[in-house]
Structures are given as C-alpha cells and as structure tokens.
Target: S-methylmethionine:homocysteine methyltransferase
Amino acid sequence: MVILDGGLATHLEALGADLRDDLWSAKVLVENPSAIRQAHLDYFAAGAQVATTASYQASIPAFLRRGLTVREAEDLIRLSVRLAAEARDAHGEGAVAASVGPYGAYLANGAEYTGDYDLDEDGLAGWHRDRWHILADSGADFLACETIPSFAEARAFKRLLGETPGVRAWVSFSCRDGEHISDGTPLREAAALFTADPRVLAVGVNCTAPRHIPSLIGRIEGKPVMVYPNSGETWDAENRRWTGTADPVEFGTAAAGWHAAGSAFIGGCCRTTPEHIRQIREQIYGG
Model:
C-alpha cells in the first residue's frame, strides 16, 4: 500500500500562509516557495510516501490573470516540481506527483465540485495542454490528474495522455455521492475510460466526503484503487470557508477500513494535515 500526503494548502495555512486568493496554494509559489518545501517535508516526516506538487491551481491562465508573463508562469509551474523533489531528496525517499488540477480550480467558484463548465472536451484539452506538457517534462515521477468533476474533462485528460506516451499518471475524481462523480456521471463509467491504459497506475476519488468512500471503492475495476478524501468538513463556496470538524484519529480508523476494502493508495485532501497522515500510517501499519 502507498500512503499519499494530505492537504498541502491546509498545511501551508498552518505554516502561516494567507491563501485568501484565487491562486490558492499557487500564491505561495510566488511569495514563499520555501514554505512549500517545508510542507512537503512535514508530510514525508508524518509517513507520506508521495509529495503532490503545488501546481493544482498553478495554471498559465491564472498567473497571466495575476499579471505575470508566460515565461514566469511556466517557471513557477516547474518550480512546484523542483520544491517537491528537493523535499523528497532531503527526506531520503519518496516520489513526486505533479498535480494537474481541474479547470474548475482556475474558475475558483466551486466548479471542481459540480463540473458546471463553459468548455467542452476540445476546449478543456486545449486549456490544459500547455501546463500538461510542462509537467510531463518536469522530471516528476508521475502526473496526478485530480479532483476531476466532469466526464468531458476526464476524456480531455485521456486525450492528453495520448500526446505524452512516456508519462505515467493517476486519475482521481471528485464525487457528489457514493456512486457518481460531481457532474452526475457514474463513477464506474468514468473510471472505465482508463482501465486499459497501462500508463495509468491508479484510478480513484479525492476531495470527496469520507462517508462516500466505501461505496465508491467498489465502483472502480481493473486498476488499483486510490482514495484521498477531504477531512469530512464541508466547503461553503459562497462564503469561501470550511464548516464542520475533523478528527485525525477517526480519519485514520476509516482509512484502515478503506485499505481493507481494497484501496491501494490512501491519503487526504482538503483540511487534512500531517497528523491525519500519521494516523493513517499508525492505523494501518501500527506506527
């Protein structure tokens, strides 16, 4: 089993970053990249075996909207991978997953949890293409296509995989319940897009309520299953805040159940911390 990391943005906030910005964690690439390296190190120390880069919201259009040049945007995307690799090397082991966040992350309106997009498959492939190729050539161990809310976006990623035959990736969907991804497509149907692709090392769900995970695990066939849900808190898109509470010990206990149900990759997403990852390790491996 592989233990993933937890919420990068959540831990950056704990380290003092102010992420009240459309760039979210990508803002720290501009302002304080050393904090990102430290966050990755803290997750490795807690038991994570994979560092997921700060490129989730680091798209070229987002940086251009902020006033940066194309060259500056490209360099910051590459920096996200370099910081994770430096943390891995300092830790002494681990892998780097280059995060490819959804189009909805750029929209910054909660669309990564609805799939309510203004682009079709062609438009989505075009929007992702430049960043995809930068990350594919970055030296990351694999790409993390994550929080995918729409079937059209999944097809766009499948198309981009075809453009980079030497790249490995995982594919992870945001889900609205125990059966469907966020736009209403059955997870079983969305996951099946990638079953026959040898470059896809795992298919799963992330940034989804933990209560849905047991049902969702059973809807993925033909690939190792990956789950890294949020903490169990709820995102209020209108007020841009999380509501509810989360207990790392309960999360770790639930993770042991997800492992027993067949998940081979387990971590956390929004609002999870190094302590959540430590609890996963302790609950599954006994420390």
Q: What stands out?
A: Residues 34 and 171 are 28 Å apart (CA to CA). The radius of gyration is 17 Å. Residues 70-91 form the longest helix (22 residues). The chain has one domain: 2-285.
